[in-house]
Amino acid sequence: MSAREVLERARAAARESASPKRIATAAVCVLAGLMMAIGATASRGNDLRPARTTELIGLVRAETDRADALRKQAAALRDEVDNLTQARTGAAQGPSVTELQAAAEIAAATPVAGPSVTVTLTDAPATVQPAGVDEDLLVVHQQDIQAVVNALWASGAEAMTVQGQRVGSRTGIKCVGNTVVVHGVPYAPPYIITAIGDHARLEQGLRDSDYLRVYRQYVDAYRLGYDVTRQARTEMPAYTGPATFVKAVAQR
User: What is the C-alpha separation between 125 and 133, in angstroms, rounded?
Assistant: First the structure.
C-alpha cells in the first residue's frame, strides 16, 4: 500500500470519528435554543429571578399603601363618630354639649392649646466614660421618661405630648434596644415631653419628684441632658393612638 493510500484512509477514519461529535454539538445547540425560547415565552419579557431589593421595595410600597388606606379609614370613622355625637346632642335624653366636650378632653380626642412646660432628656456624651460606672446608667430609659410624665400629670397637666405625639391613659412607653417606642413608633434621643398647664405647678412637680431628684444627680455627675423650658402657648394634636385596652394574660 502506497503512502498516499495510507494518508487517505487515516483522514477518512478521522472524519468518521468526528461525525458523532458534530452531531452531539448540534443537538446541544438545538436544545439550548429551545430552552431559551420556552423561558422567554414563560417570562413574557420579565426577569424570572427578580433581585431581592426589587421584592423589598415592592413590599414596602404595598405596606405604605395599606397604611395610607387604614389612616383614611380611621379618619372617616372619626368623622362618622363626630356626626353621630352631634346628632345625639339633639336627643331629648342625650348628654349636653358641655358633657360631651368634657369627655372628649378627658379622652384626649380633641386638639388643645395653652401655656406649657417642656422637658428634654438626652443621653450623656459618648466621651463620658467614668470608671466603674455601667454604661447603661448613662442613657435615657423608658422609666426616666415615664417619671417625667407621671410628675407632670400629678402636677395638674391638662394635656401632654411625647415626641410630638399626644399621650393619654392608653399610652405605653417602652424601650426597644437603644430607642424608645411610643404608639408603635421608635424614637432616638433627645426625648421631648411637653405638658399644658400652670407653669409654676408643673415645674414644682418636677422638682418634688423623688425619682427625678436622683436622675438630676446623674445629670450633674455624668452630664445626662435634663432641660426644662416654658412656652407661652403650645398647640397639641388630638390623640391618635390605640382606642382600646389590651389585657395581658400571664402564662403558667
Answer: 14
